[in-house]
């Protein structure tokens, strides 16, 4: 959480007013944490170059983070301020994907979220301080907000789709095949494909080049449907989770 007694300048006060207004319109509730742009850009330029192509694919709605950029976390969502724009995200309705790009210093990771207007917001690991807090915090909040209604939908006979993967209360399917939940031993996204591992059977595989949407929600649902302790948990630190988005 941001702290400090230094007086805010007029520009920062205006930015904060815009952020608070956007959060209020989206019904995000109380702000509990702020993550600002790093004090130094050491290493961040590699990430900016790596994600230039990603930003072109996502369109002009993903401004470059820089000095003055900030990510604010709320009870029911988040706001990002970058490139002079304020974007609001609700945890109960957003779609989260994880993207990686190879740089001279290794892989740089980012989260792509859908904002309240359907636009895309790219949050790179190096854009904001303390990614070990905000990265898993966003994933946990999205999971907590979306799993309960998803379970209700499944219990009512619904079918949910996560990119190339679909699930019901009884089965999971991918790549033209299906497995009963009692057979499932793991779901992973590695090297551009999703794999559903099974006990004593060939795994299901399907292409997932752009990442699995809301993989954190899918994994949590799979944990409920297979029974506690049956699935390994996905990692949480940027660059080390390697099992989804």
Describe this structure in words.
The chain is α+β, with helices and mostly antiparallel strands and 245 residues long. It is 28% helix and 31% strand. The chain has five helices and 14 strands. The strands form four sheets. Strands 1-2-3-4 form a four-stranded antiparallel sheet, sandwiched between helices. A four-stranded antiparallel sheet has the order 8-9-10-11, with helices on one face. It has a three-stranded antiparallel sheet with strand order 5-6-7, sandwiched between helices. The longest helix is centred in the middle third of the chain and has 25 residues, at 131-155. The model is unreliable at 1-6, 54-61 and 235-243 (pLDDT under 50).
Summarize this, please?
With 245 residues, the protein is an alpha+beta fold.
Write a concise keyword list for the protein shown above.
245 residues; alpha+beta; four-stranded antiparallel β-sheet; 5 helices; globular; disordered N terminus; disordered C terminus
Question: What helical percentage do the residues reach?
Answer: 25-40%
The whole-angstrom Rg is: 19 Å
Q: Give the helix tally.
A: 5
**Secondary-structure-derived class:** alpha+beta
Secondary structure elements and pairings:
Blueprint lengths: L9 H17 L4 E6 L7 H7 L1 H7 L11 E5 L2 E6 L2 E6 L5 E8 L2 E9 L5 E5 L6 H25 L4 E3 L2 E3 L3 E4 L2 E4 L3 E7 L2 E6 L5 E4 L7 H12 L19
Antiparallel strand pairs: 1-2, 2-3, 3-4, 5-6, 6-7, 8-9, 9-10, 10-11, 12-13, 13-14
Helix pairs in contact: 4-5
